[in-house]
From TrEMBL:
<feature type="transmembrane region" description="Helical">
    <location>
        <begin position="208"/>
        <end position="230"/>
    </location>
</feature>
<keyword id="KW-0869">Chloride channel</keyword>
<feature type="transmembrane region" description="Helical">
    <location>
        <begin position="382"/>
        <end position="404"/>
    </location>
</feature>
<feature type="transmembrane region" description="Helical">
    <location>
        <begin position="81"/>
        <end position="101"/>
    </location>
</feature>
<keyword id="KW-1133">Transmembrane helix</keyword>
<dbReference type="InterPro" id="IPR001807">
    <property type="entry name" value="ClC"/>
</dbReference>
<dbReference type="InterPro" id="IPR014743">
    <property type="entry name" value="Cl-channel_core"/>
</dbReference>
<protein>
    <submittedName>
        <fullName>H+/Cl-antiporter ClcA</fullName>
    </submittedName>
</protein>
<dbReference type="Pfam" id="PF00654">
    <property type="entry name" value="Voltage_CLC"/>
</dbReference>
<dbReference type="GO" id="GO:0034707">
    <property type="term" value="C:chloride channel complex"/>
</dbReference>
<dbReference type="InterPro" id="IPR050368">
    <property type="entry name" value="ClC-type_chloride_channel"/>
</dbReference>
<keyword id="KW-0813">Transport</keyword>
<feature type="transmembrane region" description="Helical">
    <location>
        <begin position="250"/>
        <end position="270"/>
    </location>
</feature>
<feature type="transmembrane region" description="Helical">
    <location>
        <begin position="282"/>
        <end position="300"/>
    </location>
</feature>
<keyword id="KW-0812">Transmembrane</keyword>
<feature type="transmembrane region" description="Helical">
    <location>
        <begin position="320"/>
        <end position="339"/>
    </location>
</feature>
<keyword id="KW-0407">Ion channel</keyword>
C-alpha cells in the first residue's frame, strides 16, 4: 500500500524535498498574505533590477539623439524635412519590428501590464519586454509624441515577473513583485519615489495595506537611488517656488479644471474609439501615425519626443499664449493618434505636457483679464499638470504627489487638490470615462478592474491555507491497514485509482465509522457464536463503504485562492489536490488539499 500522512507543521510542505528546505520555506512563507519580511527582501531585489533596467532604457532612448541634436530633446532645432522624416522613418522601423513577431508578442505598455496582472496571474512574457525596450527606444528617438514612463512601467513589471518566475514563487506574491517593479520604474524615470509608490498601488495593484505598501516603498527607494547614481540627484524640472497670489483666483482655477477634465475625457474617448484598430497591420497604422506626426511637426516641432523641455518652459512662463494654444491642439492630435494606434510609448509624460500647456493658457488669460497681480502662468501650468494626469489616468493621489516631487513646491498642493477633484469628477462622472488604461482594456475586449472579492482572493496562495492532514491509500486495503491508517488521525483519505488521472476524496471519519461497525458486528456474531472460524477476511473497498466521495481536480501549488475558486467552478470537482507538478506518483507530488470551505472561510474572515 502506498500511503503518506500530510504534516501539520508550517515549516515545510509534505512531499517537498528536504534538500531545498530554505527556498521551499521562502515559497511557503510568500504564499501567505502577511509575508512581510520575505516580501521586503524581494522588493529590494526587484527595485534594484527594475531601476537598472529603467536607467538602461533611458540611456538607450536618449544617447542616439546626441548624434543629431545639439541640445537633448530640442527637436525644434531640426530642419523641417528632418522633423517630417524622422517620425516616418521611426514608423517604418517599428512596423518592420512588429511584423517579425507573432500578434501575441506585440502587446506592450501599461495596458499590457494590467492585462497580465488581472488575467494571467502576473506572468509577463520576456519577448514582449524585449520588444518594449527596443521599440520604445525607437519611438522616442524618432520623435513620436509619446512618453518614456509607459515603457518603463512595462519593463519594471517584467523585471518583477522574471525574478518571480526564476525563483518559482507563488502567484499571489507575483502581483506584489509586479507592483514593486512598477514603483521602482516610475521612481527611476522621474526621481519621484513617493509618486511611484502611489501609482503602483492606485493604478496597478489596487491595494492599500501595510503589507502591500512597505515592499513597494522599499523598491521605489531602490529604483530612485539607482537613477540618482546614474543621473544625479537634481529634480526633473528646475522651477521657482511660485505660489497662488489670491484666493480670488480660485474660480479661474475651477474653470481651468473643467476644461482640463473635458479635454481628458475627449482624449480617452478618441483613444477608446481608435484602440480597436490595434489589431490591424502594424506597418499601416504606424505609418499613418508617422505621417501625421511628421506633418504637424513641420509647423509645431514642440510635439516631438517627450517634450520635457517645452514642459519646463511652460512652467517657467516662457511660452506665449497663442503658441500654447497651438501646441495643445497639435499635441492632442499627435499623442491621441499615436498611443491609440499602438505606438509603444506612454501617456503619463504627454498628460503632464498637456496639463502644463493648458494651465499656462489659463494663467496667461488670467494675467490678461485680471492684471499682473495674479499668479504667474507658470503656477497655473504646475497645477494643470496635476489635474490632467489625474483625470486622464484616474490616479488623483499619484498625480498630486508627482507634481509635488517634480516641482519641490509645496505651494501647489492646495490648488492642485481642488483642480484634481474637479477635473476627475468631470472626466469620470459627467463623461463616464474611467481612465485611459481601463477604457483601452475594454476597447481591446479584455477584462478590466477585478472585483474586490477577486482582489482579496488573489492576495493569498493555496499553499498557505490548504489542508495537509491527509493520507493516500489504494482502493482496497486490509482491515489491519485501515486500522493503522485511522491511528494516524488524518482528516481526509485520497483514494489512489491507477485508472483515473486524479484520486477521489473520502472523509477519514467515514472509514473510522465503518470500521467501528465492522468490529461491533464481529463482536455480536461472536457472542451469538455465529462467526465462522475459517472465513477469510475481506479487504475494505474504500469506494464502496458508506460515505461521501468527491471527484478532484489538480492545481499547481503556486496558484492563488482565486485560481482555486475558478478551477473548482470550471471542473465541477468537489475538491482540489495541490501538487508540485503533473505526472509521477501521488506520494511525490501532492502537498495538500483545497476544499470550497477553505475559500469560504478565508472570504468570511
Amino acid at each position: 500500500m502506498s500511503q503518506r500522512t500530510g504534516k501539520s507543521t508550517k515549516k515545510t510542505l509534505p512531499g517537498w524535498p528536504q534538500r531545498e528546505h530554505g527556498l521551499e520555506r521562502l515559497r511557503l512563507m510568500l504564499s501567505a498574505q502577511d509575508a512581510l519580511a520575505p516580501l521586503l527582501a524581494m522588493g529590494l531585489l526587484i527595485g534594484i533590477c527594475a531601476g537598472a533596467v529603467t536607467v538602461l532604457f533611458r540611456l538607450v532612448s536618449e544617447w542616439p539623439t546626441h548624434l543629431f541634436l545639439a541640445i537633448p530633446e530640442r527637436y525644434e532645432a531640426l530642419p523641417p524635412h528632418w522633423r517630417f522624416g524622422l517620425p516616418v522613418l521611426g514608423s517604418l522601423l517599428l512596423g518592420s519590428m512588429y511584423l517579425l513577431l507573432k500578434p501575441s508578442r506585440r502587446h506592450v505598455g501599461v495596458v499590457h501590464v494590467l492585462d497580465r496582472l488581472h488575467n494571467h496571474q502576473g506572468f509577463m512574457p520576456i519577448q514582449n519586454a524585449f520588444l518594449q525596450f527596443f521599440a520604445g527606444a525607437t519611438a522616442l528617438v524618432s520623435g513620436h509624441s509619446v512618453g518614456r514612463e509607459g515603457p518603463a512601467v512595462h519593463l519594471g513589471a517584467a523585471s518583477g515577473s522574471w525574478v518571480a518566475r526564476k525563483l518559482r514563487l507563488p502567484n499571489n506574491s507575483v502581483r506584489s513583485l509586479l507592483g514593486c517593479g512598477v514603483a521602482a520604474a516610475i521612481a527611476a524615470s522621474f526621481n519621484t519615489p513617493l509618486a511611484g509608490v502611489v501609482f503602483a498601488m492606485e493604478v496597478v495593484m489596487l491595494e492599500y495595506s501595510v503589507v502591500g505598501f512597505l515592499p513597494v516603498m522599499l523598491a521605489a527607494v531602490a529604483g530612485s537611488t539607482t537613477a540618482q547614481i546614474a543621473f544625479g540627484r537634481q529634480p526633473a524640472f528646475n522651477v521657482p517656488a511660485i505660489q497662488l497670489t489670491s484666493l480670488a483666483e480660485l474660480p479661474v482655477l475651477l474653470l481651468c479644471a473643467l476644461v482640463i477634465g473635458t479635454l481628458a475625457a475627449l482624449f480617452i474617448r478618441v483613444h477608446r474609439r481608435l484602440a480597436k484598430y490595434q489589431r490591424s497591420s502594424p506597418l499601416t497604422r504606424f505609418l499613418i501615425v508617422g505621417l501625421t506626426t511628421g506633418t504637424i511637426a513641420i509647423w509645431v516641432p514642440e510635439i516631438l519626443g517627450t517634450g520635457y523641455d517645452t514642459l519646463e518652459k511652460a512652467m517657467l512662463g516662457e511660452i506665449g499664449l497663442s503658441a500654447l494654444m497651438i501646441i495643445v491642439v497639435a499635441k492632442l492630435v499627435a499623442t491621441s493618434l499615436g498611443t491609440s494606434l499602438g505606438i509603444p510609448g506612454g501617456v503619463i509624460g504627454p498628460s503632464l505636457f498637456l496639463g502644463a500647456c493648458l494651465g499656462g493658457i489659463a494663467g496667461g488669460l488670467t494675467n490678461f483679464w485680471l492684471g499682473e497681480y495674479t499668479a504667474s502662468p507658470g503656477f497655473y501650468a504646475m497645477v494643470g499638470m496635476a489635474a490632467m494626469m489625474a483625470a486622464l489616468l484616474n490616479a488623483p493621489l499619484a498625480a498630486l504627489l508627482a507634481i509635488l516631487e517634480l516641482t519641490y513646491n509645496a505651494n501647489v498642493l492646495f490648488p492642485s487638490m481642488m483642480m484634481i477633484v474637479v477635473a476627475s469628477l468631470v472626466s469620470r462622472y459627467f463623461f463616464a470615462t474611467e481612465g485611459i488604461f481601463q477604457e483601452t482594456l475594454r476597447a481591446l475586449d479584455k477584462s478590466g478592474t477585478p472585483s474586490w472579492r477577486q482582489q482579496m482572493l488573489s492576495r493569498v496562495g493555496v499553499a498557505s491555507v490548504m489542508e495537509r492532514r491527509f493520507v493516500i491509500a489504494p482502493q482496497k486495503i486490509s482491515e489491519e491497514e485501515a486500522t493503522r491508517l485511522i491511528e494516524r488521525h488524518p482528516q481526509w483519505i485520497l483514494i489512489d485509482l491507477p485508472q483515473e488521472p486524479t484520486p477521489q476524496l473520502l472523509r477519514a471519519a467515514d472509514l473510522a465509522t465503518f470500521m467501528e461497525r465492522v468490529k461491533e458486528a464481529r463482536a455480536e456474531a461472536k457472542e451469538a457464536d455465529k462467526e465462522p472460524k475459517t472465513e477469510k477476511e475481506e479487504p475494505v473497498d474504500l469506494l464502496k463503504l458508506p460515505g461521501d466521495r468527491d471527484q478532484m481536480a489538480e492545481l499547481n501549488w503556486r496558484a492563488t485562492l482565486l485560481e482555486a475558486q475558478q478551477a473548482l467552478e470550471s471542473s465541477g470537482a468537489g475538491a482540489l489536490i495541490i501538487s508540485r507538478g503533473h505526472g509521477g506518483a501521488l506520494d511525490n507530488r501532492i502537498t495538500g488539499i483545497i476544499l470550497p470551505q477553505h475559500i469560504d472561510n478565508y472570504y468570511r474572515k
